[in-house]
Amino acid sequence: MKALATQRLMEQVSSLEKNVNRMSSISFTKKEEKTHKDVYTCIVDVTVFLDGLPKVKKWANQSPGQSSLEIIVPLEVIDLLDDYKKGSSHMNLQARESNRYLDQKLLETKVKETITTSSLRTQKLGEKLSDWDDAETYWIGEESESSRLDELLLSENENNDSNDEDAVSVASSSSSNSSILVPTSRRTRDEGSDIESSDEEEVYDYQDLQEEEDSNNGETYTFNDVPMKYRQILSCLLYYHSKIQETAEENQPERLALITNDEDLAYWAELFGDPKTRKRLLVKTVNDWDYLVSKPDFEKSYEYTWKHR
Predict the structure, then answer these.
(1) Can you identify the CATH homologous superfamily of domain 37-142+224-308?
(2) 125 vs 104: CA distance, rounded Å
(3) What are the PIN domain coordinates in residue numbering (predicted)?
(4) What are the pLDDT digits (tens) for 102-133?
């Protein structure tokens, strides 16, 4: 009788343990579902640290909308900051402060086993294209004048038909920096000035563009013209682009952006993308990206920017 009672007790204990484990598993699954966030990957170059270190610190600790950011610092950027840290200029001071911040932040990241919020880390050795020639797969190149005008007219019509105030807000905030398809260079203008141009000024800008294109006799850059100094960071950027493409859903925004204040790097980066859809890589200046991630409806604003760049 005692043995039977013991056996029953053991069975009851075993049953209770199974129930507890099952409840814990369900609770953990629900917790995972609640804490799951879409991750937006942003590749930052050296100008981001030299021009906007406080903003980088903010991005690494904020969760825009219902999502999180993964800030990737290319290895090349670490080397450049080391080169810039010697001296007494403001740029040298920024480079030294950036180095200290990165050392501290990367140490904190190593201590954490799992990361559920926005984070910052360096590029891993294997996070690049195996060969630079592989980048040609993603080469789109420059657009012809007629293609530029067609896309601008299409974008203008879409904006006129839209009654979404947020969409209009995003369009106005990004009209000077959406892509190389816009006639006026987005980074040559003063970012602190939002003065709207008149119709005469718009015609003048177009005439300048036409005269410049005529003077160049239609010559355009090719893949082989990509400057050597930009190939490392572009290789890192395209590596992430290729990985996202493997699992990307049709017509879904690519959660990847290059953040830079280097207008030349931005120009070359925007010559790459998805040749099938003609969607170019998304590039933002430091201030533009900071404005975007600060919006309460970040995901919606990002999607609009991605579709209309």
Answers:
(1) 5'-nuclease (3.40.50.1010)
(2) 20
(3) 43-155
(4) 999 888 766 555 555 788 999 999 999 999 99
